[in-house]
UniProtKB/TrEMBL annotation:
InterPro entries referenced in this protein's UniProt entry, alphabetically: Hexapep, Hexapeptide_acetyltransf, Trimer_LpxA-like_sf
Record protein name field: Acyltransferase
Highest rank taxon of the organism: Bacteria
Lineage of the organism: Bacteria, Pseudomonadati, Pseudomonadota, Gammaproteobacteria, Alteromonadales
Length: 130
């Protein structure tokens, strides 16, 4: 986490952060002003990361970002805006929604053997062996 200008950083429950993630809350100590009016231009609304968000390796999360519950941030992605959709994958530079309606789990042991997700995983493994 790099210093910010006093805005909040809110991180929900059960989030997972990979290595080398950068969360940047503002431009401090490099402040930006309009030359004519003197108005402070570098405004930030803070950063909000919902519950069960998985942030991939080397991702960069900039000021004024919102990631909704269940989101996944792709490795090396640059997140520069608010995403108001839950259970989506954001990736790229700049990040955009590349897949909606996803769910992630920490490991297959957390899946019920009766679940569609577990069966899908086993079918995929079987295909690879054939």
């Amino acid at each position: 986490m790099l210093p910010n200008d006093g805005n909040q950083l809110l991180i929900g429950e059960n989030c997972m952060f990979s290595n080398n993630v950068i969360i940047r809350g503002g431009e401090y100590p490099h402040l930006i002003f309009d030359l004519e009016s003197g108005e402070y231009l570098d405004k930030s609304d803070g950063i909000e990361i919902g519950n069960r968000v998985w942030v991939g390796e080397g991702a960069y999360i900039n000021k004024s970002v919102r990631l909704e519950n269940g989101s996944i941030v792709g490795a090396r992605s640059v997140v520069t805006k608010r995403f108001n959709e839950e259970n989506c994958v954001v990736a790229g530079n700049p990040a955009k929604i590349v897949k909606s309606g996803v769910q992630w789990v920490n490991n297959k042991k957390s899946l019920s053997k009766d679940s569609v997700m577990y069966q899908s995983l086993m079918n995929e493994k079987a295909k690879r062996l054939n």
